[in-house]
Amino acid sequence: MKRLEAVWVRNRVPYQFVWRQRLVKIRQILDFWRDIGEWWHNEPELWFWRVQGEEEGIYELAWDPTKNQWWLYVIYD
Amino acid sequence: MSGAHLHVHSAFSFLNGASMPETLVQVAAELGIETLALTDDFGVSGLVPFLKACQQYGVKGIIGAEVQVESLGRLVLLVPDTAAYASLTRLLSEAHLTQPRGAPRVSWEMLERWGSSLIALTGDRDGILARLYVQRQKSLLAAVAERLSAIFGPHQLFVEVTTSLLPGDRKLFHALKDLADHRGWGMVATAAAHYARKEDFGLYDLMTCIRAGQPIEAVFPGRRMNAENYLKPWSHFEKLFRAWPQVLRTTQDLAHRLQPPLLFERRFRPLFRTPAGIDSVAYLRHKVWRGARWRYGRALPRVWPRIQHELEIIQQMGFADYFLVVADVAEFARQQRIRFAGRGSAADSVVAYCLGITDVDAWRRNLLFERFMSPERQEMPDIDLDFDARRRDEVEHYVKMRYGPEHVARVATYQTYRPRLAVREIGKVMGFPRDELDTLAKSLPEAPIAQLLERWQDIPELRQYPHSERLQAVLRWAQAIEGLPRHIGTHLGGVVISHEPLEAISPRQRSPKGIEILQFDKRDVEELGLMKLDLLSLPTFSAIDIAVDAIQTHETFDYDQIPRQDSTTFQQLQQGQSIGVFQLESPAQRALAMRLQPSTWEDIVASLALIRPGPIKGNMVDPFIARRQGREPVTYLHPQLEPILSKTYGVVLFQEQVIAIASALAGFTPGEADLLRRVMTHARSSEDMATLGERFRAKAQERGISDTVAEQVFQMIAGYASYGFNEAHAAAFAETAYRTAYLLAHYPRQYLLGLLNAQPLGYYPIDVLLVEARRRHIDILPVDINRSGVAMQEEASGIRVGLGFVKGMSLAAAQEIVARRPQEGYRHPKEIAERVPGARPHLARLIEIGAFDALTRDREGLLADVLADTPLGLTMVREERSWGAADQVIADYRILGFGQHQQWMALWRPQVRREGFLSIRQVMEVPLGQPVRLVALFYRPHRPPTRSGHLVVFFSLVDETGVLEARLSSRGYQRFGHWLFGKARRMIAVAGIREVTGIQVTAVAPWPSSA
């Protein structure tokens, strides 16, 4: 899980982000879900987007609403 | 208001819902939700509080349930109108009763039979369509869709999409939409809610772990991955499904179409079959007349106006059939010689007395019928009958046969989370070791968890825990679950009888005891218009019957003719020697008796009302005793109070007295006065009380009572209204209390025999009863394989312990051993194994408790014989090895739970004596006010409510010479409380000061000190 420094959102939905100094524009949102995690250890709820970039790459982005922190969770090759 | 939640689970989904129905409705109202459907798992137990709350909050409440169809998936069924409600109850009954308990299922045939009048939603991820889609079972999905179409048609089946925000939702919803479009089905959106607010998820998740028996760290199927199953605002639906507006429109349209079932306006009375040509009112009058002649003889003309008054109210309220039904039950019990008695406020009725339902003469005692029933209080009458516990089921069986099994059913009870269970189950899920939890649970004082958390540092047995932060976390979650229903069980004796078949009113299911029950508890059945009759088990009646049988083998004896004023009986009570007496044996009752010195029947009635939390907190006990003994003058605020309060020396002790005072002084009708009493009892705010007081004073002034006196009287009854006890109930219990005291005084051996054989019952365990028996010079004879019966039985001047008391041995095995005993007796344990193969596993334990001691004292040798098969089955020749006293006593307590050869402390007596401690008998001989030291077993430490609010501990000390009651002050509790609660420890050394009722403890320590 890598931290993302720059993510652009519209209505709380991401539309582009920077990964390895490259701007990835999101072509479509494939899926969205929320995960409560280990709440008993005070883990925050994370919001997940599975997105397809314009360059065809598939990414899973995670957002921690409590800290407004973004993560790149998975990249599908 | 707009929006609808059509798939909602409450805590009545039993561990699959974390909010009570009332909370769900309240939150829905706060969110402006217009329609809310309660769809608990296979049940409608939450229906009554749900619909009531909906009425209160102006929310449209719809009833439904979620069911599992075959092994395919779940379906949400909604009731569109009142008529369709019966289809749901019938479907749910079949789903429960045709399957093993705890695993209800709906079959296609059931859906075909009952589904056509219901509305179906296809459920969430566990739903019948979603699950097949996720499992990629395309052909089965098509077949299921076809079958659902055939049952529900296009207008009663709706494909459900949820706001659950799970991975894969998008694909799933599109697939479901394709299917719905293809079939012409509508689609609706739900939250598939299992809790009211997002923040309730933690509790719901813990409940899920409890249900699955998994620790919180585990990942397992069925556990939700997010906290999205709550009641969401409709705006969330609009946002999430903005691309699919038709789904939202269909959801709203369906919500408008559904109508709340009208279930509260109906009445389902039992129908009593009267002789041809006579209606139930006339027949009741006839039976009461006959009964009144039996009860009152020549006094009847004086009683008849009162009876007329009661009959008029009974007729006006339409309860004639109910009285006839109850009278018929009483008649059956009497004919079958099943000992029984009516209890509770029914004993306020002369009609009930004449019909033989109760044995309290409400006319002579001047008891108020309106405490039991009045037109002002439109409530169902509630009659409780206690039966000999051994034969109670015969009575229920009779009722079922008389009115038909489809018209009679047992009422449910919801087993709710109490602090100890909550701590055990939450703690287990959170990974605490079982023994640690057990200790913590046992050491929790009887109080709501919120109070325990608040007062953690004041409770010595809690503050001793090293990991108190972790334990407090457990307690905080336990607090959240406290009071929620865990599972459904069987009410002790509540039975409803209805002229309408019950299956249209409530689903039925099997309780853990295997009994068919309704899905509603006693309060809910009344709200639904059903009439309840409590057929309760009273083990004391079994004890009495056993005792009377034993007495009658020696002499002629009639229990019903026991003299009312027996001096020996009262002397025994005055000395506090009432261990075993019904309702008068507790330490508090015995202490009261030693102070009150009861010498009349009324003293016993008063005693039963005095030892209650209310009178104790309200400081009624001391003034009552002082007035009873003439140490304080008996005064009345107004002369009209004298006839009402004279029997309790001017103290308001009974609820009936509050009613009578309001009637006499302020001119309330008795029914109004009872309503006033009830409001007073429950009024919480000073404003409410002030309003009531004004009304009382105004009415009293109209009758010429001065404002000052009216105010004083109001203050007096207001102070006692919440403490007062039902006099009729006290009088009914006093009958049995006095008679058992008489049996104990005159026939102690037979009565104790009865108590021992009717276990479990009463305050004290068997070990204490045996101490009491020995104190009364009754020999306790240990189990003897050739002399013992199954039960305890009389033998010479003692009581022989029965084989049925051996722990772990079934009653059937004990009966076989006795039945197959050869005339000359068993000669060796192996002979039992040959004759009763089922007894083989119990032989070692029988040897260990000395059941063969009469044949040989060589227990070791016998054990070797049965544990290791010797060649050719021969018994080896060997030296006899008998057990020492310590081994013997340890085996007794381990295998029987009590000391049959001797009490535990007798074993330690030489050492205790050497260390200078006294026995209980010696302590009793020490003058009052003198210091004493003793070592004993302790029982039942408890912290009851006290007047001051301080935590004081009461416990019983027991040794081989007797029982002593101990009291540990609040300060003492802070110092020594941890020795009395929590970890299992039985022997303690106690120092204290001798007082009338026992000892005032000054120090406690474990004993022996090395323990």
What does this entry show, briefly?
The complex is a heterodimer of chains A (77) and B (1011). By secondary structure, chain A is an all-beta fold. Helices cover 0% and strands 66% of the residues of chain A.
Describe the structure.
Chain A has no helices and 7 strands. The radius of gyration of chain A is 12 Å and the shape is globular. In chain A, a hairpin with a 4-residue loop joins β5 and β6. Chain A has 77 residues and is an all-beta fold. The mean pLDDT of chain A is 94. Chain A has one domain. Chain A starts with a strand and ends with a strand. Chain A has a 7-stranded antiparallel sheet, with no helix packed on it. Chain B is of the alpha/beta class. Chain B folds into 6 domains: 254 residues, Metal-dependent hydrolases (TIM Barrel, Alpha-Beta Barrel); 174 residues, no CATH class; 66 residues, Orthogonal Bundle (Arc Repressor Mutant, subunit A); 181 residues, no CATH class; 148 residues, DNA polymerase, domain 1, CATH 1.10.150; 103 residues, Nucleic acid-binding proteins (OB fold (Dihydrolipoamide Acetyltransferase, E2P), Beta Barrel), CATH 2.40.50.140. Helix content of chain B is 46%, strand content 14%. Chain B is built from 43 helices and 22 strands. In chain B, the strands form 5 sheets. A 7-stranded mixed sheet of chain B has the order 1-2-3-4-5-6-7. A 5-stranded mixed sheet of chain B has the order 8-9-14-11-10. In chain B, a hairpin with a 5-residue loop joins β12 and β13. The longest helix of chain B is centred in the last third of the chain and has 20 residues. The radius of gyration of chain B is 33 Å and the shape is globular. Chain B starts with a strand and ends in a 5-residue tail after the last strand. The mean pLDDT of chain B is 92. The interface between A and B is medium-sized, with 13 and 18 residues.
